[in-house]
Amino acid sequence: MFMLQVLLASLCLAAPSPDAGVLTSARVLEESSPSDWRLVDPEKTLYVDLPAGRVVIELATGFAPAHAQNIRTLAREHYFDDLAILRSQDNYVVQWGDPKADEPAHAKSLGSARAKLPAEFSRPAEGLAFTKLPDADVYAPEVGWADGFPVGRDPKAGQIWLAHCYGTVGAGRNNPADSSNGAELYVVTGHSPRHLDRNITTVGRVLAGMPLLSSLPRGTGALGFYEKPEQRVSLKRVSLASTVPAAERTDWEALRTDTPTFQRWLEARRNRRESWFVYPVGHVELCNVPLPVREVMRTRY
């Protein structure tokens, strides 16, 4: 039976694809070279270990340096461990933090992390390499990619910022713009809420594990907050990848956005030529060009 399964699998692999020779997303990645990929820095990688598995986050240190540093400090000092996912709002976000953050007498100590940070909604665009998406955008004069992240840019104002695409990670805040410190984080799990751009500090993006977040039961309270403690999902551990033992680490690569391969990827997303598609649109939105990532398979001894 095993040999039959292997034979059938080999026949399936050998069968010609109806999309053979067509510029598809899958073909672009298959034909990429090692130089088209960049290794994600473990010092910028956050592991969020849930009971069901691991979520991997790349921190955007070039866009929110103060918040990224604070988050790394919180992770190194195990602040997030045993806290909880507090909110899962349909077609919007999943959010985690300290359930008792609003009770000073019972809130978990921030340790050596800073309690107050400046708002980091955007940064100067000068000196930052930018790969422009030629398609028009309704939320920014220009959009594209910088430092490996989807961004909006205003050439006249000289500012650039992270865009709220699916999987974007942000720092929750109250009404004051400078009321976030990275102790409460959210992930976009619904249709891209670009109206949040430049209204909140975005700190990174999820590289892997999105199904663990997007499949969570929706909260029944206002804004999707869980009304009962037993509804919350525990954070087993949140760690900086560089501090995790090698046997427990996963290394990741992301497709570079400054290569001809990325331009081919972009074209494959703009005009879907797979046999299923009838009409090649000829346009694409920023958040409909997900940046490919892949796990680096390491030999373990």
Description of the molecule:
This protein has helices at 2-14, 25-30, 65-76, 210-214, 260-270; strands at 37-39, 45-50, 53-59, 84-88, 93-97, 123-124, 131-132, 142-146, 149-154, 159-162, 168-171, 185-188, 202-208, 233-234, 237-240, 251-255, 293-296. It is α+β, with helices and mostly antiparallel strands and 301 residues long. The protein has a single domain, classed as Cyclophilin-like (Cyclophilin, Beta Barrel). The protein has a nine-stranded antiparallel sheet. A five-stranded antiparallel sheet has the order 6-10-9-8-7, with no helix packed on it. The longest helix is centred in the first third of the chain and has 13 residues, at 2-14. It starts with a helix and ends in a 5-residue tail after the last strand.
List the helices and strands and how they pair.
Layout: H1 2-14, H2 25-30, E1 37-39, E2 45-50, E3 53-59, H3 65-76, E4 84-88, E5 93-97, E6 123-124, E7 131-132, E8 142-146, E9 149-154, E10 159-162, E11 168-171, E12 185-188, E13 202-208, H4 210-214, E14 233-234, E15 237-240, E16 251-255, H5 260-270, E17 293-296
Antiparallel strand pairs: 1-16, 2-3, 2-15, 3-13, 4-5, 4-14, 5-12, 6-10, 7-8, 8-9, 9-10, 11-12, 11-13, 16-17
Could you give a quick summary of the protein structure above?
16% of the residues lie in helices and 25% in strands. With 301 residues, the chain is α+β, with helices and mostly antiparallel strands. The chain has one domain (20-296): Cyclophilin (Beta Barrel).
